[in-house]
Specification:
Layout: E1 8-12, H1 19-33, E2 42-46, H2 52-58, E3 64-68, H3 85-90, E4 95-98, H4 101-106, H5 111-123, E5 127-132, H6 136-140, H7 144-153, E6 167-171, H8 185-201, E7 211-215, H9 220-227, E8 234-237, H10 244-257
This protein binds phosphoenolpyruvate.
Residues 12, 172, 177-178, 215-218, 236-240 line the site of phosphoenolpyruvate.
Length: 259
């Protein structure tokens, strides 16, 4: 964790929740963040689309921001089932996750589509959290760097418009997502340093200010070790974000790892 980059911890709720359960979870998150130095860590939660208004209302006066899990690459029009960046902004979202590996793998999202979604979101004033990461097969065949380089290079057109406060990359090795098997601190640090160097190489002049989150089976027990690494600036949290206690413990670990 670097002193110059404020860590960020983002909960990706995926397709989980209901109105009653969300109310309990959001209230637990609110209570938990109240005891954490807000200057030391940013916090956001990303519920499914139908619950964004609920989260935005509950979190309105709080430091916890709201994000969505996907956005259309198009501004508006005849795109049935899609949700635009402007709609997310209007609902109170500050962030949107793009290019999650579940969408890349199951829904066939390409690097180009991910970049187009991110561009559209940035144009609407949203912050983007762009997910990259290799599969187990990629890692076993020594293709991790090649895959990360390809995914990062697809973002080159965003280099000029990327405000480091609003442009975040999440390194999520696919083999670590939801598996209980996190990357080691060394594996994660090496990938993060590679991503940062890659951003710089394709024209992100503020690469040293861009936050790179780690995602993949982050739990209270392994968060601190990961967040202490010099290029890991917080986390994108899946399963553990569905428990307020676990999520808050991870947020606290990020706040403490600062500096
Ligand atoms: C994710 O899906 O973004 C994720 C990191 O999930 P988990 O923490 O459950 O591995």
């Amino acid at each position: 964790m670097s002193e110059t980059r404020k860590p960020l911890v983002v909960g990706n709720w995926k397709m989980n929740g209901d109105l009653a359960g969300n109310a309990v979870l959001l209230s637990g998150v609110l209570t938990g963040v109240a005891g954490i130095d807000q200057g030391a860590v940013g916090v956001a939660v990303c519920p499914p689309f139908p619950y964004l208004s609920q989260a935005a209302q509950v979190l309105a006066e709080s430091p916890v921001q709201v994000g969505a899990q996907n956005v259309s690459a198009f501004e508006n029009g005849a795109y049935t089932g899609e949700v635009s960046a402007a709609m997310l902004s209007e609902l109170g979202c500050a962030w949107v996750i793009v290019g999650h590996s579940e969408r890349r793998a199951m829904l066939g999202e390409t690097d180009e589509q991910v970049a187009a979604k991110a561009a559209q979101a940035l144009r609407s004033g949203l912050g983007v959290i762009i997910c990259v990461g290799e599969t187990l097969e990629d890692r076993e065949q020594d293709r991790t760097q090649a895959v990360l380089a390809r995914q990062i290079e697809a973002l080159a057109s965003l280099a000029q418009q990327a405000d480091p406060n609003k442009f975040v990359v999440a390194y999520e090795p696919v083999w670590a997502i939801g598996t209980g098997r996190s990357a080691s601190t060394e594996q994660a640090q090496a990938a993060h340093a590679f991503i940062r160097a890659g951003l710089e190489a394709i024209g992100f002049r503020a690469a040293s200010k861009i936050r790179i989150l780690y995602g993949g089976s982050v739990k209270p027990a392994n968060a601190q070790g990961l967040f202490e690494m010099s290029d890991i600036d917080g986390g994108l949290i899946g399963g553990a974000a569905l428990s307020a206690d676990d999520f808050i413990a991870i947020v606290r670990a990020a706040a403490l790892a600062r500096g």
